[in-house]
């Protein structure tokens, strides 16, 4: 393959990605019903014909934009879990005091994460809500949404197993549910009560780790 062909392919892939990114920005600002060929072309700054050249229809464009979003999220989630699980592996957690300290560190980590998502990365939450609770109703996209949800759940299950939970699957569902509820509440109301978020995560982790309730 000569240099000219490689250059054209690279440019084409860049244009395709710019169109997908533009579609995601439109979804964040105005919902997925705002995604039209003309709106996406204007947002991406490309010729209108390119949106139909790279995507057979709007459904295909939205579906592929979700795949781009999903790939980004999966990478971020894997990186976050890798760092957190490594910390848990290295942290001493034999005595009651050490387990309490581990719980407090994990509580702070979860609280920081939720507050950061609400304050600095709300677009990610909007996309998550859209694809989990709206677009997943499309039969062709449901499998992708379920797969991403399962990736979230599996990470929490490993986390709960490492904490010694006797029922890691159930505890993982509780933690993930609490995380998303707090995120979505903050996103929709604009309220970020750090102390309340911390208290809820601390209570959940206290139960999961079977620590004294007054710890």
TrEMBL record:
InterPro entries from the UniProt entry? Homeodomain-like_sf, HTH-type_TetR-like_transc_reg, HTH_TetR, TetR_C_31
Q: DNA-binding region at which residues?
A: 36-55
Which terms are listed as keywords in the entry?
Answer: DNA-binding
HTH tetR-type domain: residues covered: 13-73
Please list the GO terms describing molecular function.
DNA-binding transcription factor activity; transcription cis-regulatory region binding
Tell me the superkingdom of the source.
Bacteria
What PROSITE patterns does this protein's entry cite? HTH_TETR_2 (PS50977)
By its UniProt entry, which Gene3D superfamilies does this protein fall under? Tetracycline Repressor, domain 2
Q: Does the keyword DNA-binding apply?
A: yes
> What name is this protein filed under?
DNA-binding transcriptional regulator YbjK
Native source species: Simiduia aestuariiviva
């Amino acid at each position: 393959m000569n240099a000219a062909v490689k250059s054209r392919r690279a440019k084409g892939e860049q244009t395709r990605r710019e169109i997908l990114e533009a579609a995601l920005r439109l979804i964040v600002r105005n919902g997925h019903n705002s995604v039209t060929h003309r709106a996406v072309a204007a947002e991406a700054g490309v010729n209108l014909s390119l949106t139909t050249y790279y995507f057979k229809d709007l459904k295909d464009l939205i579906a592929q934009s979700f795949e781009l979003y999903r790939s980004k999220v999966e990478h971020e989630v894997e990186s976050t879990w890798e760092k957190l699980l490594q910390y848990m592996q290295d942290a001493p957690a034999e005595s009651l005091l050490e387990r309490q300290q581990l719980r407090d560190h994990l509580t702070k980590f979860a609280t920081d994460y939720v507050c950061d998502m609400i304050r600095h990365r709300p677009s990610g939450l909007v996309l998550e809500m859209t694809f989990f609770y709206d677009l997943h109703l499309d039969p062709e996209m449901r499998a992708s949404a379920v797969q991403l949800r399962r990736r979230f759940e599996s990470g929490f299950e490993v986390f709960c197993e490492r904490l010694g939970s006797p029922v890691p699957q159930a505890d993982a569902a509780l933690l993930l549910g609490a995380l998303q509820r707090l995120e979505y509440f903050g996103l929709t109301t604009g309220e970020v009560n750090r102390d309340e978020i911390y208290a809820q995560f601390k209570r959940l982790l206290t139960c999961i780790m079977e620590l004294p309730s007054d710890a």
